[in-house]
Design brief:
The protein has about 270 residues and is of the alpha/beta class. It has helices at about 5-15, 90-105, 165-175, 195-205, 215-225, 250-270; strands spanning about 25-30, 40-45, 65-70, 75-80, 110-115, 125-135, 180-190, 210, 225-235. It has one domain (about 5-270): Rossmann fold (3-Layer(aba) Sandwich).
């Protein structure tokens, strides 16, 4: 059995040689969304490769840096790049940084991603507030022996994404005049995109958008009783009857176009946290 508790403490010990920051807010930036750090007053930036037991990002646009600094007047730690099942990592490896965040003092986790929109009311470049999720990754980061120091064996998931944070996000989006949908995110393993039949299936079971991340991190955060806010950028339109090929370049371009709105919203929400 992997002793995640002690491994995460080893990672913490290394980070403490680099910074004395005690962030209460953690942020995970997804595909094409690394620009939020440009709005952060950075204290230090640490490559994942130098942190004991951290995975390394292998996906284009995921820079692979842990950023400590201030955003919206709050102390934050930002993952500029995340990990995925399709990279060959286990669910435990993918969520290891979230375990380390808890040791650092993080109590609120903001997760963002780029995803495909299946709801016919959504369009490329729109933002969606994640109200709930469906896990079709085929893995769960809590499988295996449970360490009660992190959380209970059977954590409740009746509110995976904080209602209070969702309410705040909707209020701030309205104040900023940012259109913000609210819906259900379904996570699949990838890395291929879905077939027309799969999009129909995912829509039929209640999903509004589809992606390849976020859910493991949210599960582990809730296991440790963190409050979670999830935000998605719709980077492609996944309508089975009008499906067109998608290129990574198009996804990154859509993410870059919508990123200013996401950045403004996240910064404003953080500024209004108590």
């Amino acid at each position: 059995m992997t002793d995640t508790w002690n491994l995460s403490l080893e990672a913490l010990a290394f980070l403490r040689t680099q910074t004395s920051a005690t962030p209460t807010i953690g942020i995970i930036l997804g595909t094409g969304l690394g620009g939020l750090v440009d709005h952060c007053d950075i204290e230090c930036s640490i490559d994942y490769a130098t942190i004991p037991h951290f995975p390394v990002s292998t996906v284009e646009s995921h820079h692979g840096r842990l950023i400590f600094g201030t955003l919206g007047g709050k102390s934050v730690v930002i993952m500029q790049g995340r990990f995925h099942v399709y990279e060959g990592y286990t669910a435990q490896q993918i969520t290891f940084p979230v375990r380390v965040m808890q040791h650092l003092g993080v109590r609120t986790l903001v997760v963002s991603n780029a995803c495909g929109g299946m709801n016919p009311l959504y369009r490329r470049g729109d933002l969606m507030l994640i109200d709930d999720h469906i896990n079709l990754l085929g893995v769960n980061p809590l499988i295996g022996a449970n360490d009660e120091r992190f959380g209970p064996r059977f954590p409740d998931m009746s509110e995976p994404y904080s209602i209070a944070l969702q309410t705040l996000a909707r209020e701030r989006a309205l104040a900023l005049r940012i259109n913000l949908h609210r819906g259900v995110y379904v996570a699949v393993a990838g890395p291929n995109l879905e077939t027309r039949a799969e999009y129909r299936f995912l829509r039929a079971i209640g999903a509004d958008v589809v992606g390849m991340s976020t859910v493991p991190e949210a599960i582990v955060a809730r296991h440790m009783n963190m409050s979670v806010l999830g935000l998605s950028i719709i980077t492609d339109e996944c309508f089975p009857d009008h499906l067109e090929p998608v290129r990574l370049e198009d996804v990154l371009a859509a993410a870059a176009k919508a990123e200013p709105h996401l950045t403004a919203l996240v910064a404003d929400v953080i500024a209004h946290l108590p």
